[in-house]
Amino acid sequence: MIDISSIIQGYAHGNFLMADDYDNLGWYSSNERTLIPLDERFRYPKSLKRVLNQNKFSVAINKDFKGVCLGCANRETTWISKDLMEIYLKLNHAGWAHSFETWQGDKLAGGILGIVIKGAFIGESMFFNIPDASKVAMVKLVEHLRSRHFVLFDAQMQNPHLARFGSYIIENHEYIRLLNQALDRPCQFD
User: What radius of gyration, in Å, describes the C-alpha atoms of the chain?
Assistant: First the structure.
Protein backbone atom coordinates (compact mmCIF):
# COMPACT_ATOMS: atom_id res chain seq x y z
CA MET A 1 0.00 0.00 0.00
CA ILE A 2 1.25 3.47 -0.90
CA ASP A 3 1.39 5.90 2.02
CA ILE A 4 1.07 9.26 0.26
CA SER A 5 1.55 11.27 3.45
CA SER A 6 4.90 9.56 4.19
CA ILE A 7 6.07 10.07 0.63
CA ILE A 8 5.27 13.80 0.72
CA GLN A 9 7.04 14.04 4.08
CA GLY A 10 10.11 12.42 2.55
CA TYR A 11 10.21 15.00 -0.25
CA ALA A 12 9.49 17.82 2.23
CA HIS A 13 12.61 16.74 4.15
CA GLY A 14 14.81 17.02 1.06
CA ASN A 15 14.84 13.39 -0.07
CA PHE A 16 13.72 11.85 -3.36
CA LEU A 17 12.68 8.40 -4.55
CA MET A 18 14.63 6.41 -7.13
CA ALA A 19 14.86 2.82 -8.23
CA ASP A 20 18.30 1.24 -8.48
CA ASP A 21 19.54 -0.97 -11.33
CA TYR A 22 17.58 -3.90 -9.88
CA ASP A 23 14.31 -1.92 -9.59
CA ASN A 24 14.60 -1.68 -5.81
CA LEU A 25 12.97 1.57 -4.72
CA GLY A 26 14.68 3.70 -2.11
CA TRP A 27 15.02 7.18 -0.66
CA TYR A 28 18.05 9.22 -1.66
CA SER A 29 19.56 12.52 -0.70
CA SER A 30 22.61 14.39 -1.87
CA ASN A 31 25.28 16.72 -0.51
CA GLU A 32 24.52 19.01 -3.44
CA ARG A 33 21.34 19.89 -5.31
CA THR A 34 20.79 21.44 -8.71
CA LEU A 35 18.28 24.26 -9.02
CA ILE A 36 16.73 25.88 -12.07
CA PRO A 37 16.70 29.62 -11.37
CA LEU A 38 13.35 31.36 -11.23
CA ASP A 39 14.96 34.80 -11.47
CA GLU A 40 17.08 36.65 -14.05
CA ARG A 41 19.72 33.88 -13.98
CA PHE A 42 17.41 31.65 -16.02
CA ARG A 43 18.49 31.58 -19.65
CA TYR A 44 18.09 29.47 -22.75
CA PRO A 45 19.85 29.03 -26.08
CA LYS A 46 19.17 31.76 -28.67
CA SER A 47 18.11 29.12 -31.18
CA LEU A 48 15.25 28.24 -28.84
CA LYS A 49 13.90 31.79 -29.05
CA ARG A 50 13.08 31.17 -32.71
CA VAL A 51 11.23 27.97 -31.82
CA LEU A 52 9.28 29.78 -29.10
CA ASN A 53 8.34 32.59 -31.51
CA GLN A 54 7.04 30.05 -34.03
CA ASN A 55 4.48 28.76 -31.48
CA LYS A 56 5.05 25.20 -32.73
CA PHE A 57 3.94 23.78 -29.38
CA SER A 58 1.04 24.36 -27.02
CA VAL A 59 1.34 23.62 -23.31
CA ALA A 60 -0.92 21.77 -20.90
CA ILE A 61 -0.87 20.56 -17.32
CA ASN A 62 -1.82 16.96 -16.51
CA LYS A 63 -3.52 16.40 -19.87
CA ASP A 64 -1.62 13.10 -20.24
CA PHE A 65 0.14 12.55 -16.93
CA LYS A 66 0.64 8.83 -17.53
CA GLY A 67 2.02 9.54 -21.01
CA VAL A 68 4.63 11.87 -19.51
CA CYS A 69 5.57 9.24 -16.92
CA LEU A 70 5.95 6.63 -19.65
CA GLY A 71 7.97 9.05 -21.79
CA CYS A 72 10.29 9.82 -18.88
CA ALA A 73 10.79 6.11 -18.14
CA ASN A 74 11.39 5.19 -21.79
CA ARG A 75 15.20 5.24 -21.85
CA GLU A 76 18.03 2.76 -21.75
CA THR A 77 18.61 3.19 -18.02
CA THR A 78 15.90 4.65 -15.83
CA TRP A 79 15.23 5.22 -12.14
CA ILE A 80 11.48 5.12 -12.82
CA SER A 81 10.57 1.54 -11.96
CA LYS A 82 7.11 0.00 -12.19
CA ASP A 83 6.64 0.69 -8.45
CA LEU A 84 7.74 4.31 -8.78
CA MET A 85 5.42 4.75 -11.76
CA GLU A 86 2.54 3.54 -9.57
CA ILE A 87 3.56 6.00 -6.85
CA TYR A 88 3.63 8.88 -9.35
CA LEU A 89 0.15 7.96 -10.58
CA LYS A 90 -1.20 7.86 -7.00
CA LEU A 91 0.50 11.18 -6.20
CA ASN A 92 -1.04 12.71 -9.31
CA HIS A 93 -4.48 11.42 -8.35
CA ALA A 94 -4.00 12.96 -4.89
CA GLY A 95 -2.90 16.31 -6.37
CA TRP A 96 0.84 16.18 -5.54
CA ALA A 97 2.47 15.06 -8.80
CA HIS A 98 2.01 16.98 -12.04
CA SER A 99 3.07 16.90 -15.65
CA PHE A 100 3.86 20.06 -17.56
CA GLU A 101 3.45 19.11 -21.19
CA THR A 102 4.15 20.37 -24.70
CA TRP A 103 1.85 19.30 -27.49
CA GLN A 104 2.03 19.54 -31.26
CA GLY A 105 -1.54 19.25 -32.42
CA ASP A 106 -2.92 16.13 -30.74
CA LYS A 107 0.53 14.57 -30.21
CA LEU A 108 2.32 14.64 -26.86
CA ALA A 109 5.63 16.25 -27.85
CA GLY A 110 7.43 16.32 -24.50
CA GLY A 111 7.07 17.12 -20.86
CA ILE A 112 8.38 17.51 -17.35
CA LEU A 113 7.29 15.39 -14.39
CA GLY A 114 7.41 16.88 -10.91
CA ILE A 115 6.18 16.84 -7.34
CA VAL A 116 4.63 20.08 -6.07
CA ILE A 117 4.64 20.89 -2.37
CA LYS A 118 3.48 24.44 -1.69
CA GLY A 119 6.13 26.75 -3.26
CA ALA A 120 8.47 23.97 -4.37
CA PHE A 121 8.48 22.22 -7.73
CA ILE A 122 10.65 19.11 -7.46
CA GLY A 123 11.50 18.03 -10.98
CA GLU A 124 11.71 14.27 -11.31
CA SER A 125 12.34 13.83 -15.03
CA MET A 126 11.77 15.21 -18.52
CA PHE A 127 11.50 13.76 -22.02
CA PHE A 128 10.71 14.63 -25.62
CA ASN A 129 9.21 12.87 -28.63
CA ILE A 130 9.75 15.87 -30.93
CA PRO A 131 12.98 17.91 -30.95
CA ASP A 132 12.90 21.08 -28.80
CA ALA A 133 9.67 20.01 -27.04
CA SER A 134 11.28 19.47 -23.62
CA LYS A 135 13.24 22.73 -23.96
CA VAL A 136 10.04 24.64 -24.69
CA ALA A 137 8.44 22.87 -21.71
CA MET A 138 11.32 24.07 -19.51
CA VAL A 139 10.94 27.72 -20.58
CA LYS A 140 7.16 27.66 -20.25
CA LEU A 141 7.33 25.86 -16.89
CA VAL A 142 9.70 28.50 -15.48
CA GLU A 143 7.31 31.22 -16.68
CA HIS A 144 4.44 29.32 -15.05
CA LEU A 145 6.27 28.92 -11.73
CA ARG A 146 7.28 32.59 -11.72
CA SER A 147 3.70 33.72 -12.33
CA ARG A 148 2.58 31.69 -9.32
CA HIS A 149 5.43 32.95 -7.09
CA PHE A 150 7.16 29.60 -6.53
CA VAL A 151 10.36 29.75 -4.47
CA LEU A 152 12.16 26.67 -5.75
CA PHE A 153 12.57 24.57 -8.90
CA ASP A 154 14.64 21.57 -7.82
CA ALA A 155 16.23 19.65 -10.70
CA GLN A 156 18.05 17.31 -8.27
CA MET A 157 21.19 16.54 -10.34
CA GLN A 158 23.23 18.68 -12.71
CA ASN A 159 23.76 17.78 -16.36
CA PRO A 160 24.93 19.70 -19.45
CA HIS A 161 21.37 20.09 -20.76
CA LEU A 162 20.19 21.81 -17.57
CA ALA A 163 23.32 23.98 -17.44
CA ARG A 164 22.22 25.59 -20.73
CA PHE A 165 19.25 27.00 -18.77
CA GLY A 166 21.39 28.48 -16.02
CA SER A 167 21.01 25.62 -13.53
CA TYR A 168 23.35 25.86 -10.57
CA ILE A 169 24.49 23.66 -7.71
CA ILE A 170 24.02 24.47 -4.03
CA GLU A 171 25.08 22.67 -0.88
CA ASN A 172 22.45 20.56 0.87
CA HIS A 173 22.17 22.87 3.92
CA GLU A 174 21.34 25.80 1.59
CA TYR A 175 18.86 23.61 -0.28
CA ILE A 176 17.08 22.72 2.98
CA ARG A 177 16.88 26.43 3.88
CA LEU A 178 15.29 27.26 0.50
CA LEU A 179 13.01 24.23 0.69
CA ASN A 180 11.74 25.39 4.08
CA GLN A 181 11.04 28.85 2.62
CA ALA A 182 9.13 27.17 -0.21
CA LEU A 183 7.12 25.08 2.25
CA ASP A 184 6.03 28.30 3.97
CA ARG A 185 4.60 29.73 0.75
CA PRO A 186 1.22 28.39 -0.35
CA CYS A 187 1.35 28.30 -4.15
CA GLN A 188 -1.18 26.86 -6.57
CA PHE A 189 0.36 24.92 -9.47
CA ASP A 190 -2.63 24.41 -11.75
Answer: 16
Evaluate the CA torsion angle 125, 130, 135, 138 in order and state its sign: negative
Nearest to 55 by CA among 112, 105, 99: 105
DSSP β-bridge partners for residue 92: none
The candidate with the shortest Cα–Cα distance to 26, out of 10, 9, 13, is: 10
Dump pLDDT digits (tens) for 99-142: 999 999 999 999 999 999 999 999 999 999 999 999 999 999 99
- Burial bucket for residue 105 (CB in 10 Å: 0-12, 13-18, 19+): exposed
Q: Are 48 and 176 in contact (CB under 8 A)?
A: no
- Which residues have CB under 8 Å from 91's CB, separation 6+? 4, 7, 8, 97, 115
pTM: predicted TM-score of the whole model, two decimal places: 0.95
- Of 104, 115, 132, residue with least CA distance to 15: 115
